[in-house]
Amino acid sequence: SVQFYDGDDQLPRVITPFPGPKITDLEMFQGEQKESLYWGTYRPHVYFGVRSRTPESLVAGLMWLGIKDGRYFMRHVCQDADELQTYGWNKHNGRDYGHQVLIDHGMTLTTSFLKSKVNGSGYGGDWAVQVGVQSEKLSEDMPDVAHIFFYVADEGQNALSLGRSVSEIYEKSLLAFGSRADVGGWELHLKSMDSFEVHHVGLKTPHIHNLSDLVQGILGVQVRNFGHLELPDTSDDSPNILVYQISARTPFRADIAFVTGTDIDEDRVEGRVESLTSTSLTSQLHKKEKEFDDKFKKIFNPSDKLDSESEEVSKAAVGNLLGGIGYFYGQSKILFPQPTKHRSDGDSILYWPAELYTAVPSRPFFPRGFLWDEGFHQLLIWRWDTYISMDIIGHWLDLMNIDGWIPREQILGAEALSKVPDEFVTQRPSNGNPPTLFLVLQDLVCGMKRDKFSATESKDISAFFERSFGRLEAWFQWFNTTQSGKHTSSYYWHGRKESQAIFELNPKTLSSGLDDYPRASHPTDEERHLDLRCWMLLAADCMHSISEQLVEKKESRKAYKETAKLLADFDLLNKMHFDKDYGAYFDYGNHTEKVRLRRQLVEKNGNQPPSLELVREVLEEPVLRLVPHVGYVSLFPFISKIIPSKSWILEKQLDIISNTSTLWTNYGLRSLSKTSSMYIKRNTEHDPPYWRGPIWMNMNYLILSSLHHYSKEEGPYRERAETIYNELRGNLVRNVMKNFKQTGYLWEQYDQKKGIGKGAHPFTGWTSLVVLIMAESYSEC
Ligand code: 6A9
């Protein structure tokens, strides 16, 4: 039962949790699993940050002074404007080890993270980070001394204690200590073989998310008043944030160790600090690195065919995906226009306080959870660590409300909110997002059938399905009812009409995940969206497979089987979505091709003067018809493998894929055909083309997966599928590699003309699927 509101009246449905046991409460996620995942680099939005998987954690992090054009800049939160040449976890196992390299103009920093649970440590064990700093003298006036800042902060605003005196820091290496209910007494130590200076400041403030500004301000005052770049060695009363400035001549190395349970077993503390610093830390890091390399080879390079460069990029992709996993806690804002007694904020209402353990698409740009991105992330993660994957999926499904809805974008907590402009925060309960988690669940079922898992794993996966089944059914039903179309077995993404249609060339479909991918020009309830239909097939098929694994789900098993059969019916599909003349599959809806944006005077509300703006002109009455845009959406039946391998329609799909005037480029498949009327068109003045040309890895992965499938199926087009498969795979891999080499990053999308990386970077969300493409690892079914 949830009680966050006064009074005893009922919660509005939209913020009522799904009534059923939580998946994350399952036995397999408790005990050792929970404890082993307690501390981690779960703050992906900062260059280096540690926290625990609990709402009000003790958090730690790193800042440093970067130098550009002779000026200092504080580095802390990952941001594009810092112009780092590269950064990201090159290796990370998602549990107790990671290695990151950051190049900031003339400075190279490394952060190596290690956890250890030994006799005497408190809950969750101890951890350490080794920070290395090197600098290259880019100019004469570049100082030899570098400044890094390490902080600890208590989100619960409990007071922290400083090492009792400066000499204590130097003699006993003790920076700070405190005590918490979760881990008991704790101590933070700093050791270095190099000579260094330490200064500190203690702050009391609830605002942890703008810490870099605070520290930068303090340093500015110090420089103005005393002419030196040193923290003042002062502290507010009962500070909840302690910041330590470590200054040293480069190159230097600092080992920072965090040990817990210190109140219980004081005698062993020194030994534990010893083992988590200096040569002992270095050798443990080496050992963990070797384990990572071996595991990587086993899972993503089993036949040893990667050259050393591809292997390095592959590891950086997997490393930063795993190292970018975050833990968030807070309340989503949900659109709720009705007046309510419950806590609301204008047109919105708050979801229940919830935690989310999830990977993120991009640490600097989108350091938070996105529902359909997560399914793609988990395609990699389950292969690496099935339990981390189930834990993450469990957290997502636990966010479901009583209607079976899961908010698409998760902006939880002040730190996450600080990254998102207001107009993007509110989530709409009418909007879905592709149920890609079924891609992973399908892999898990098929993996079980093929004995891919150990007996314990299989038992746990079964328990996971057992516990999830009710939620998955509700999720399926949410789509099947709220997103259904006028005709049986037709579906469309609801919520398009709410957009400001008159200013858009084509009203966006954000819920599909494909944002501005063109659909019917005039949204109506007559629409049929092909991609959603195929997602429903995946969902029904997967529900059927899962129910086969569960003994007593006989009744629903039959129903899902029938739904899947209907959605996979080739004739029915063709009747509803196939255009014989094009040989292509399309959406259906109220549509005209004759639209354009023209500059017009637009009257404004209030006393603002009218302004010139681009407004949509419709030059022809729309009619109900197939919507003739060839692109990713057209390939969904191919992706779903519905097309029989002997059908001429398969040949047509291969034509569309391999034709350079439609989708083929030397860098991967374009999102939209060159022949489409919307190809690389802006949607509004401020909205450049996004899914109207550029190459996206998630879709290319799914298409490649099908090509791989058809290259193994008997039929007249088998060899052609194989050729195209090999070429497409080569193009994708080559281009990602080339961009990585040139820019140091994986990118959100790649330009269709020159293959250049575009948008958010580093983007080790679904672009990391290139790892599976290199390994030729596709659906397990
Ligand atoms: C806007 C601006 C700092 C857009 O990868 C996440 C999503 C995908 O799910 C979706 O399919 N990306 C794709 O079309 C990025 C979405 C960013 C929305 C937030 C706020 C903040 O800028």
Describe the structure.
With 781 residues, the protein is an alpha+beta fold. The protein is 32% helix and 22% strand. Helix 7 runs antiparallel to helix 8, helix 7 packs parallel to helix 10 and helix 11 packs across helix 12. It binds N-9'-methoxynonyl-1-deoxynojirimycin. N-9'-methoxynonyl-1-deoxynojirimycin binds next to helix 7.
Features:
single chain; binds N-9'-methoxynonyl-1-deoxynojirimycin; alpha+beta; eight-stranded antiparallel β-sheet; eight-stranded mixed β-sheet; 22% strand
Gist?
By secondary structure, the protein is an alpha+beta fold.
Shape call: globular
Number of helices: 19
Quote the distance from N terminus to C terminus. Answer: 39 Å
- Percent range for helical residues? 25-40%
Over all CA atoms, what is the radius of gyration? 27 Å
Which assembly state applies to the chains in this document? single chain
Uncertain stretches of 5 or more adjacent residues: 1-8
Mean pLDDT: 94
**Proportion of strand residues:** 15-25%
